[in-house]
């Protein structure tokens, strides 16, 4: 089980004062566990520095502009492969069953395919199984990394690190297919209204409970021992 997934999940969650306060702990987890390559860890450092130095409202504004107002940067993974098609519902149910089979009960109002939720789940699973699931989503993550890189966003490093871990390059065929969709304009409010006219589907026991993702991730992020190493298991289960 890798705490790195939990740390990256926190970095991709809506910024808060709690997240800012946990930046040092997140950095320690990433550096101690060394699941990501040295170059990937170095690339993530500017984002960590932003969390330490920027005002929380600036961080929140940037996050919303990127991930909430740009459909092509949505952190809901099935958005990029299923859109509003009929396949999205069954895929969502299958993912929920995967969570439950792994002893993970979704308590957030976010959708099951929300990337921070998926990473939180992976942090609870054996190394080989977690890597296999990450590889399945690798082409989507790599496409998101490339889109963020085009916008010169420091968040690109987080997605690029995950894509590298999944063994997915931006030049991959499936990645390039996703990138054929033109980037949308987060400043086009009229288009945004059209995209989000339908009511959001929520999964979880309490749709009025807010969004506890970041809070729960940070509350359960126990630092690993300084010399701890990731599980060497490499078996991938598809």
- Count of separate structural domains: 1
Order of helices and strands: HHHHHHHHHHHHH
**Gyration radius, in Å:** 17 Å
H/I helix tally: 13
Mean pLDDT figure: 81
In what range is the share of β-strand residues? under 5%
The 3D shape can be described as globular
Number of strands: 0
- What is the percent of helical residues? 40-55%
Largest sheet report? none
Poorly predicted runs of 5 or more residues: 198-216, 223-238
Provide the structure class: mainly alpha
Distance between the termini: 18 Å
Give a written overview of the molecule.
The chain has helices at residues 3-11, 17-21, 23-33, 38-53, 56-68, 88-101, 115-122, 127-136, 138-150, 156-165, 173-178, 189-195, 213-219. It is globular. It has one domain (3-218). The longest helix is centred in the first third of the chain and has 16 residues, at 38-53. By secondary structure, the chain is mainly alpha-helical. It has 13 helices and no strands.
